[in-house]
Amino acid sequence: LRYDDLTQQEQQIFDQGNSQLLPSRDRFGRLVNFHEQFTCPIPQLVRFRLMIYFADVYSEDVVTQQRGLVAVFSTSKDAVVFQASPAERKDYNQFIKCHPMRWSAIHLILPTGPTFHIVRALMILVSGAEERVRTRFYEGMTMETKYKLLT
After folding, report:
1. I need a surface site. Which of 23, 72, 116, 139 has the fewest CB within 10 A?
2. Terminus-to-terminus CA distance in the chain, angstroms?
3. Cα–Cα distance, 47 to 10 (Å, whole number)
4. Cα separation of 44 and 89, whole Å?
5. What DSSP letter does each residue of 12-78 carry, written as one string?
6. pTM, 2 dp
7. Are 71 and 104 in contact (CB under 8 A)?
8. Each residue's pLDDT tens digit in the chain (151 positions)?
């Protein structure tokens, strides 16, 4: 899959830069994939195609094949949305299970507040034991989170 294979809509969404493979690696040499919540709703098929494109890009890296990938997901109070229907959630979970790369670390950055404590608890309940071990939650604004990630 190449960039040229993406539709014009997918290329426009890709060019927004909300999902990026960072140019630097973590201290263990793993690639870091950063995802910021999109401000507009994106059809599920488009999200899947973009995820497949990213998976194709970082699967070519030998170190990532050996050590896994680090994912950082950031969101704001305005952008927290879940898949609308149970069928979409089921498709998404199946897609993640058959993802070609191993997630060695998942960092989720959520705003502070009681609503996001509930969101965090639900995410922990929904995720499997294997994902739970690799997942870390951070609360706060961007600057606060940067300091927490550095420690």
Report:
1. 23
2. 37
3. 8
4. 10
5. HHHHTTSEEEEEEE-TTS-EEEEEE--SS---HHHHHHHHHHHHHHHTT-HHHHHH-EEEEEE--TT
6. 0.72
7. no
8. 788 888 898 888 888 888 888 888 888 888 888 887 765 677 778 888 888 888 888 888 888 888 888 888 877 665 555 545 677 767 777 777 777 777 788 888 887 778 778 878 877 777 777 777 788 887 776 666 666 666 5
